[in-house]
Fold this protein.
Amino acid sequence: MIILEILTQIFVEFIFRGIILGFFKLLSKGYDNLIHFIFGTKKELTSIQKIEKKILYKKFTLTETQNPVIEKGMKGVVLEVIDNKNVYAEFMNESGKQIEYQNELAYKIPIKSLKLV
């Protein structure tokens, strides 16, 4: 019985998120494109959205040492854009394990200290 409840929960989540929310996102995008086609105005992205489009989930090399464990030259991945100047990033060691320092796995890194790979 418990397995049936779990499968039902998973199915409902899939239907709700995948189909219903996906449908409304599609309608929103279609509306934006229609407005652009009719009036010639395009929906402007915020500065954070522009930065996210450029660097979110991208690999980078660090150009400045951040702490004793996260040093210059290490490779990482941008997880989240906080603001115009900072991101959260994670780093992996040579064996593929996440680097942990003071019980943190994601670190606040200034954008100016990133070099995209």
Notes: The longest strand covers residues 75-81. The two ends are 50 Å apart (CA to CA). The mean pLDDT is 88.
